[in-house]
Structure formats: structure tokens, C-alpha cells
Amino acid sequence: MNYTLITSVVLYLLGTLALGLWAGTRIKNTADFAVAGRSLPLIMVVTPTFATWFGAETVMGIPAKFIEGGLNAVVEDPFGAGMCLILVGVFFAAKLYKLNLLTIGDYYRQRYGKGIEVFCSAAIIMSYLGWVAAQVTALGLVFSVLTNGAMSPAAGMIVGTLAVLIYVVVGGFLAVAITDFIQMIVLVVGLSIIAFFSAQLAGGADQVFAMAAQQDLWRMLPPPTFHDIVFFIGAAVTMMFGSIPQQDVFQRVMSAKDAPTARTGAIIGGASYIMFAFVPMFIVAAAILVMGDAGLAMAKNDYQRLLPTFVMTKMPLMMQILFFGALLSAIKSTSSATLLAPSTSFVENILRHLRPGMDDRQKLFAMRSTIVVFAALVLAYAIAMEGTSIYELVSAAYQVPLVAAFVPLVMGLYWKRATTQGAIAAVALGMGTWLVFFPQISSFGEVFPGQLAGLIAAFVGMVAGSVLPQVLQDRREI
């Protein structure tokens, strides 16, 4: 067991924890806690946006998918995920910022009423379970590798969750923004140096690129068959559209000091994410060259351990410290934001209807308490799902808001004829169709992606539910 490495990681964790506790001294109300008082400059919008997206799946999941199937296998993430942020910047940020709302659920209430607000907020909250669980799973794996198995993955999950939970509960989004700024620097610098060192071990970057070309890993488009094309589109839209109606994205938009900053920050964050996601892909490709058949076997059978094992067995201590600092930065930045977002939505869009008389101080206490409860649920779920792919946990999480919340949001902003009846029909048809495609219910999901079917059904429901009642009303009047 390398005590120098472990000590370095612990000191880094304590440092970010101290920053979060300091941020907590500046929290005065729910607006400070949820959106940092709508006061952040461009750099402090870009860094949490990028850092939140750059999580465990980006470092440990995407590279293995890339090795298995090339760029075609990672269209969902990073390409779909990064495009989500760019689309938010271009089409949503300015419009939502001007509404001066605290949560994305507030938009549904303002546009469609309480029923749609509660249901869409619940769908959004549910989607975070898998995403946060993926980060917790990765934390457990990191601590297990660091201690050479002395700490079990489950124990690592508990320790990692507590390390993140404390500063999020105390400091809220301000703590997330400040720690993300530091963690993004560590992440970018650390992985860049690791990539350079990996290239040297592999005999040069040209050898890594040659291997990727030889294995046809740069292929992006699917084979020209109906089945492959629709599943490619289904994968692309899952995070591209399903991530848009998410509270963590909305928090970054609303935390900016003005609408132009919100728009620009989302676009830069999305573009930066897509570009830098290639760095861990490059490192894993180099690892395959260096480790040979053992690396390929690990990529197929235990891919989540491939990068940590490569670093621990092939690199000197300083590279190990840089790698685990970067990896923990990626995981902690994502898990902190995704713990805060659903808790804020629950209090603002569900609990406030059950307890309408809460003042601001009570709401702030409720937000902090909900974070603790949600963290406990996520931890239990992650431990129960131990062994599940990190990439798959994240991917499945976004299908719920895609089929339930995306269409009411985009149509409400861009189609004046959208009505509450249309939103109800969109949610019902979207969710219902998606559920029908579950493998436990039917075999439809083998020939057409359920999330894409649900998205199409939601659009049909919105148009039909908004237009038909008016047409019938006009006929009755005639």
C-alpha cells in the first residue's frame, strides 16, 4: 500500500472540504444556496458546467466504449452530452434566465400549472438517481484501488459520499462552484500530463493514433441499415435532449450574473467538454498499446479498473498522484452538483405544495435535509447495483426526462399554442410509450429504441392535446 499516494489524496480531499465549508459562511438564503445569488462571472459559469459533465463515466466509461466500438459507440456521451450544453446556450439560456426562476420546475408551474410542475419535477429528480449512483460507484472503486483492496468498494462509496456531502450541505451551489473551479484546474492539468506521459510509454502519440486508425476507431456513422440508424439516433438524443430539462443545467444558467454570460458559459462549457473528453480516450488507447492483451482483456471484462491499473502499474508516484487527483476532481465535481440539484427541485417544486407556509429559513433547512436523505438513498442504490456499468447507469438516467419533460419545455418556450392539456398528453404518451418498449413488457425495444419512440409520442401528444380541444370548441360554436 502506497501511503504517500494515499496521504496526498486525503490532503486534497480535506482541502476541497475546507473550501466548501468557507463557502457556507456566505450562504444567507435559498437563492444563495441554490443559484449562488445569480452573481457568477463567465469563468465561474464555464468551470462548474464543464466540471459537472466531466464525471466518472467520462474518465472510466467513455474510453472503454471507444476502444470497443470507436466513436460510433460514444455518440451518446460525450457528443450528445456536450451538444446538450451548446443547445442550452443557443436556444434556452437567455429565455430561461429572463424568467428569474429558482428551479426548472418553476417554469413548468408558470407555463402549465402545478400538476405538470410536480410530475415533471418528480421525473427529473428520479433521473438523478442513476447519475449520482455512477459517481458514488466510481468513488468506491477509486478508494478500493488506492488501498490495494484493503478498503472494499462499498466502504469506499460510504467514505467518498461523506466527503462530498459535507461541503454540499454546508455551502450549497456556491461551494460547488468554488470547488469545481479548483477541481477543473486539477482535472485539466493532471489528465493532460498523464496523456503526455502515456504517449511516451506507448512509443509516441503517432503510434496511438495509428492503432486507433487500424482498429477503425474513428468511425462515427452507423452502418446504413434502418435498425442501426434509429438506434444511433436514439443514443444521440438521449443525453442531447434528455439533459436539457435538468436542474443542474438550469442552476448553471441561473447562477450567471446576466443572460449573455449564461448563454456563453453553456456554449463554452459544452464545446470544452467534447474536446477534452478525447484526452481519457487517448490515454486508454495508449494503455492498450502498453499493456497488450492484458489491457484488452481488462477493457472487455473489467474496463472500470483499466485506467487506474495502468497508472498504478506503469507510472511513477508523481503521475499516480496527478491521476487520482484528476479522477477525484472529475467524480467529486459531478457528484456534488448532482446531489444539490434534485434536492433543490424537491423542496421548491414538491415539498412547498405539501407545506405552503414555509419561510425562507425553513426552506433552506429543508434543502439541506433533503440532500442528506437523497445521498443516503443514492448510496444504498449504488451499493445494491454494485457491478453495474458506470456508463450504463448514466445513460439510463436521462431517458426519463427525455420522454417526460423535454417536450413540454421546448414547446412551451417556442410554440405559443402549447397548452396544459397538451403537456399532460405529452407526458402521458411519452412515458406510456417508453414503458411499453421495456424488455420486461414487450420485444418492441429490440427493433426500435424506446426512448426515441417515447420522444416522438410526446411530440404527438403535445400537438394533439393542444390543438384538438380548440378544434372541437370551434366546431361546437359553429
TrEMBL record:
**What Pfam families does this protein's entry cite?**
SSF
Tell me which UniProt keywords the record has, alphabetically: Membrane, Transmembrane, Transmembrane helix, Transport
Enumerate the subcellular locations listed in this protein's record, separating them with semicolons. Membrane
Its membrane topology is listed as:
Multi-pass membrane protein
| Coiled coil spans | none
List the transmembrane segments. Answer: 6-23, 35-56, 79-97, 118-143, 155-178, 185-205, 225-244, 265-291, 311-331, 365-384, 396-415, 422-441, 453-472
> Where on the tree of life does the source sit, at the highest rank?
Bacteria
Q: Which family does it belong to?
A: Belongs to the sodium:solute symporter (SSF) (TC 2.A.21) family.
User: Do you know which PANTHER family this protein is assigned to?
Assistant: SODIUM-SOLUTE SYMPORTER-RELATED, SODIUM/PROLINE SYMPORTER-RELATED
* Protein name in the entry: Sodium:solute symporter family protein
Organism for this UniProt entry:
Massilia soli
From the broadest rank down, the organism's phylogenetic lineage runs: Bacteria, Pseudomonadati, Pseudomonadota, Betaproteobacteria, Burkholderiales
